[in-house]
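Blackboard transcription, Thursday session:
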Amino acid sequence: MTAPNTAMDPVIERAQAGDENAFRELYRAHRAEVARVVQRTLGPSADVEDVIQEVFVQVFRSLRKFRGESKFSTWLFRVAWNVARMHIRHLQARPRYAPERPYDDGPEAPHRPDEDAERGERFAALYRLLAGLSEKKSTVLILHDFHGMSPAEIGEMTDTPVLTVRTRLFYARKELYQAIADDPVLGPQVEALMESLPGRPEARIQAKPTQRESSP
Amino acid sequence: MSANEHDKRATKWKAIFAHRRGKLSKTAATRVEAHIASSSEAQRVVATDALYESMAESVRSEATREPRWDQIELGIARAAKEAAADAATPQHEGDASEARRTATRPRFGYWAVGVAAAVALAWFGSRALPGAPAEPNVARGPERPPAPVFASILATVDAVTGSVRARTDESPAVDVRPGSRLASGTTLETAHHASVHVGLYGTTGIVLDGDATLRLAPRETAPPMARHRIVLALDAGMVTSRVDPLDGEGARFDVLAGAHMFRVVGTHFAVAHRGNDVALRVDDGRVEVWKDGVRLALVEAPGTWGKVALFGADADLAHPYLPPTANDDGPTVTVPAVAGMTGVDINGMRIGVGGAELRVRVAPGPVEVIGWAGPRKLFESRVEALEGEVRIEAPSESRDDGGGVLTPDEIQRVVAPGAVGLRRCRDLASRQAGDEVVGQFRLAVHVGTAGIVERAALTGAEDAPSAFRSCVLREVRAWRFPRPRGGSVDFELPLTFVTPSKGTAKTADNP
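(Written on the board underneath:)
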């Protein structure tokens, strides 16, 4: 993924020179890759297509700066990753409203979501909890667990020692797991899994997770 | 927890992780298993790890959901269009220079303009967008005063009935008229029985009913669950939205009513807001209801949520009037108030009116105007609108006595593809009612001289859900036939719904 190119792809060179057809060629060749990176980074979000669009806008803005010192796919991954992370950061930076009682108006009140929506809610909850971690922690978790990158690759991409990446991965996972156990959507899933653990002692588990303020 | 305890706990967690990933010796694994069996905290770690790993595996292994690439490309094209429009009316030195750069960059074409658009949009998104004072900058004919124009345009007024005013924090309220361009931060206020049709993304728009106040809110002030560039903050009244189903996410927006956020997934819906009450009605697609960062409901069409009494009678939702090709300088048509008039067709596009004067933007050329009092045609008029304001002077009573001709083929060419929409009505109504809508019905259709379905009735469906009936009639009214020769045409269609597994809506034309 990070091996340098010995020769610049002629399509990239033509695109850098302003050839519109070359741009289109690059777009067609790499759009699926960009979609994958964005979807895995954002999770179930309706913003995915907006962000993919923004990635390509950024690619075409920055393409002239690409010198072929790394693979184009590596460079593209970084652009897509940065745009997606910027999007998440932008969402987190918005002002928030004070909590109020949920709307309830008797029999006409909320519909029950279907199964797909419930599954989507679980993944939305997971990504919400990830967003509640510090950016450094969520970065290593998403890159390692969702994008399948090794600690060495993460270290190279984030300019961080591998040992630090490994340590950060552990503490990120620890913090995330505590949040998962306390989450109103994912917590019950954990409890259900605990019930089915093999070799579990007869005594029922009484301990409840400490109540923590869940991230909005 | 002391540092020592913290370290001990971390060691145990690491041991559990190592065990779950098969990295321990047999002896060490036995020790860890014994610890897990005796510790509820360890069991919780194991269960959480199992849950998380399965979810992470799903993320890694699931096929990428195919985005709508055509929409993404259209989005870039739209950004290019916006940049071009902005370049035409530069209001900031940075914009002007950007526009000049864009105009002198020939080789990048479509893509490069898209990039320039992104720069312009980023600039719009990063400033406070207070809304500049009214500043006419569109040349118009002498017979009509210029429409107010604000900086950083987000929307365009396409039709107005009655009195509608717009204001910003920094500029006083002014009357809006067809062609008025609205910036982020603009507040629209409609008088009693007035309404305004606003185009947001070319083929997407909203209708704001009377006694309503709605702000095109800057995204910076929107709650965190808002996800689109435009947020419509409905302080009071009712707004009906129609999102172009072919335009994907790019044409969508969020409606904010008090603390509730209605996140647009679907395409035709209305939000009402009075005092502390809010309500949602979805006629097509889906809308998510959010509050405090939590999704309260996913409402699918046909569906409602909240205090639906705010919507009043069981009427069809309005359709925003969106002139297909008119530019801001194009002509407008004014239809005077006529007693009892409830709606006006402008070249086949229906606009509801509450007895007030109607002003609409049109594409230059011939315009056919039909006034309606419920199902009764009040008048029909044809005018040539090329520029400026064209006023319908004296509507004459039209004859509507049938006698026209449409061949069975001409009818079938419209009805056959339309059956898809009818099946969707059945499927949605069946899902909502929890029971299959099956049976044989008859559709009575009256096609006017313009090829528009002027009346439609569904018989034999008295026991079917009302949502099904209204959905079918809505679909049928959207059918467009060739102009009948010699007058209007009446015909009936048998409509048969069998079980979904066998599933089709069978129609046969019987003119």
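Lecturer's comment: The CA atoms of residues 242 and 268 of chain B lie 4 Å apart.
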